[in-house]
């Protein structure tokens, strides 16, 4: 497993459209995914220990953000042939077991991950209502362990700020996670 850090936010970068199949068998586009106050595009997968460490808290926070007009879409771009835990069938199971309140879609061609310059799982892209990037940072200080006593809620606070002001925080800490598993 290779751990990577994401680049910092390129404020104002415009979200790129996609058309990806969800575990609900719906095809999701950028327009269909966005919320009244913004959109969180996140690249996750099933097997990554960084994602597993935050998943219950992430699902909880995203439910609250939905109430603030921030919608979310989770994109799985890893190669499921070499990483079978990331298969479409397993994506369905994870979404059901974890009570996802957001679409979980597969990026079979990996074109969306490349268009977004996704680096790792998790990789978070927080957009305002105009689909301008305002956050590209970490979920919190957990990494792949247990949250520290002084844990911050970086993603939640950033997306809440975007919902309220349409601007992200000027100071952001990059996300860390497992590298995207590219097809050869």
Automatic annotation (TrEMBL):
- At the top level of its lineage, which domain of life is listed? Bacteria
Q: Name one GO molecular function term.
A: antioxidant activity
> What stretches pass through the bilayer?
none
Q: Kindly name one Pfam family recorded for this protein.
A: AhpC-TSA
Residues in a coiled coil are none
Q: Which InterPro entries match?
A: AhpC/TSA (IPR000866), PRX-like1 (IPR047262), Thioredoxin-like_sf (IPR036249), Thioredoxin_domain (IPR013766)
Q: Which residues form the Thioredoxin domain?
A: 9-161
Quote the PANTHER family the UniProt record gives.
OS07G0260300 PROTEIN (PTHR43640), THIOREDOXIN-DEPENDENT PEROXIREDOXIN (PTHR43640:SF1)
The protein, known as:
Thioredoxin family protein
Origin species:
Candidatus Methylopumilus rimovensis
Q: What is the lineage of its organism?
A: Bacteria, Pseudomonadati, Pseudomonadota, Betaproteobacteria, Nitrosomonadales
């Amino acid at each position: 497993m290779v751990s990577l850090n994401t680049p910092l936010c390129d404020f104002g970068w415009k979200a790129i459209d996609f058309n990806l199949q969800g575990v609900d068998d719906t095809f999701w586009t950028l327009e269909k995914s966005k919320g009244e106050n913004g959109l969180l595009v996140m690249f996750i997968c099933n097997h990554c220990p960084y994602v597993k460490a935050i998943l219950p808290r992430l699902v909880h926070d995203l439910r609250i953000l939905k109430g603030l007009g921030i919608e979310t879409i989770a994109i799985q771009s890893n190669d499921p042939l070499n990483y079978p835990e990331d298969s479409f069938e397993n994506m369905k199971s994870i979404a059901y077991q974890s009570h996802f309140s957001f679409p979980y879609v597969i990026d079979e061609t990996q074109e969306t991950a490349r268009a977004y310059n996704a680096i790792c799982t998790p990789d978070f892209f927080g957009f305002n209502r105009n689909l301008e990037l305002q956050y590209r940072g970490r979920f919190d200080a957990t990494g792949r362990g247990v949250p520290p006593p002084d844990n911050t809620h970086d993603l939640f606070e950033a997306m809440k700020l975007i919902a309220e002001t349409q601007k992200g925080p000027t100071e952001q800490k990059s996300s860390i996670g497992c590298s995207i598993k590219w097809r050869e």
